[in-house]
Amino acid sequence: MNFYALSTPPGVSGIAVIRISGKGALQIANQITRKIIDQPRYALLQPFYDQEGELIDNGILIWYPEGQSYTGDNLIEFHTHGSTAVINKLLSDLEARQDCRLAQPGEFTKTAYQNNRINLYEAESIADLIQAETEAQRIQALRLKNSSPKFLKWRETILDVLSNTEASIDFSEEDLPTGINQDNEKKIKLIVSDIDEMLDESMGEIIRDGYKIAIIGPPNAGKSSFLNLLVKRQAAIVSSVKGTTRDIIEVKYNINNYPVVLTDTAGIRNAKNKIEKTGVELALNASKEANLDILILDGTEKKIPKNIQKLISDKTVIVLNKKDKKSFNSKKIIKELKDYKFKDLIEVSIQDKTGINKLNSKLKKIVSEIDSIQSTTLISRARHRALLKKCSNRLHDFLKIIKRNEVEKAAEELRLASNNLGHIVGFIGVEEILGRIFEDFCIGK
Questions:
Q1: What are the average pLDDT values for consecutive 10-residue runs of the chain, which has 445 residues?
Q2: N or C: which end of the chain has fewer CB within 10 A?
Q3: 13 and 44, same structural domain?
Q4: Cα(116)–Cα(333) distance, rounded to whole angstroms?
Q5: CB within 8 Å of 190: residues ≥ 6 apart
């Protein structure tokens, strides 16, 4: 069945693009224009009519023929004026037809995948590109799309080694080419090394989901005020009453074109009731899951509470607040921190914004260090990481088993490893192995 959808955002605009994909998309276009469209991939100025012959609009039509379109089927684009009336009229006319229906979410890309125009990994990178909100996410999505061949190359190599291994099981040595299994272990070791190196990195997931910064500290240190100052709006309630923040507050933010998730947390203290205890637990969990902690301390206090001291680590930026107060005394706190390792310590006044520029510069530097244009990070989803981990485990097992000369078990590990990579790109196949045995080697003479 042919399917259609509005591909541009709804609402008033200069132009709107409505797409139809399917075997009969060209026939539908011929009926709407009352002409025979015979020029593929040309922008043609055409009148668009409804089924009663009434003019809907004059616009541009482009026909992408089967095998040369995004979906792989005939694909028609109607470029109309972007008024609500024109868009609704053409869409309602298409809805009334018996030979097409409204597309399901993602169906154009799903059809492209089913027609082997793209693989599953590329489809996911397209989804990431559409959803990209920052420059770093845009670059990451394009990098992912272009990195798909790496998974395919690994899988090809594993299948080569598997075909060699299968051949040594099924056929006698005199029927096989000399040195058929000579470099098998070396090839697998190189792949395992690459995969394990990739698994050690988490930057791809951080760029996709956001760099997590937890704002933590004791009650009334200025955590919520700091959040509001950073995002330039009242995202959190500020009050002199201790324990105003009970739940965590997450705010999406952009630092130096990198996506950041700021989390304002409840003041960490010895809670007296169940609600306060829950708030403190959520704050501690947010700190544990964060990529960076911003620990807000009251610079007028003489000591750092012991439960706060436990949270200081090499991922902590300590912010001494209330520098505008006469009782501010950073020397005592700095002395208390001499035996702790942390990223930096900055004195500020959230009230009059003293030191905030310095703090912003530090945050920009820290967040920008998570990635570089030259980075080859390829993992951006938990699904990819889980499958790569399984693949790595199978290949490590293969290297152990093959030393014991248990060829059949070794072959099974390779088969499972190739399947894991196949799931990433969206295809697996047993016939590929059989085809390689008879194609690459002159067996059965």
A1: 91 92 96 96 96 95 95 96 95 94 89 87 83 81 79 91 80 58 86 89 80 90 86 60 62 86 86 79 89 91 86 92 87 85 91 90 87 59 88 95 88 92 71 43 34
A2: C
A3: yes
A4: 62
A5: none
Q: How far apart are CA 329 and CA 309, in angstroms?
A: 18
Closest to 71 measured CA to CA, from 36, 103, 39, 94: 103
Is residue 192 within 8 Å of residue 392, measured between CB atoms? Answer: yes
Q: How many CB atoms lie within 10 A of CB 302?
A: 10
Pick from 196, 200, 198, 201: nearest CA to 392: 196
Residue 31: predicted pLDDT = 96
Q: Please, which contacts does 26-35 make with residues 24 or more away whose CB atoms are closer than 8 Å? A: 26/63, 26/65, 26/74, 26/76, 27/99, 28/2, 28/76, 28/94, 28/97, 28/99, 28/100, 29/61, 29/63, 29/76, 29/78, 32/78, 32/93, 33/61
In one-letter notation, the amino acid at residue 439 is E
Assess if residue 278 is contained within a domain: yes
Q: Report how far residue 186's alpha carbon sits from residue 76's, in angstroms, rounded to the nearest whole number.
A: 50
CA separation, residue 95 to residues 3, 51, 59, 100, 165 (Å): 10, 11, 20, 7, 55
82, 117, 152: which is the final residue of a domain?
Answer: 117
* CATH assignment at residue 314: 3.40.50.300
Q: Which two tokens stand for residue 166?
A: 């299968």
Structural domain for 408, as ranges = 126-201+379-440
Tell me, yes or no, whether 97 and 149 share the same domain: no
Q: Is the pTM of this model over 0.85?
A: no
Instruction: Note whether residue 374 is domain-resident.
Output: no
Q: Which pLDDT score, from 0 to 100, does residue 345 have?
A: 93
Left, alpha or beta for 270 (phi > 0: left; psi -120 to 50: alpha)?
beta
Looking at the structure, do residues 164 and 78 belong to the same domain, yes or no? no
Co-location of 429 and 387 in the same domain: yes
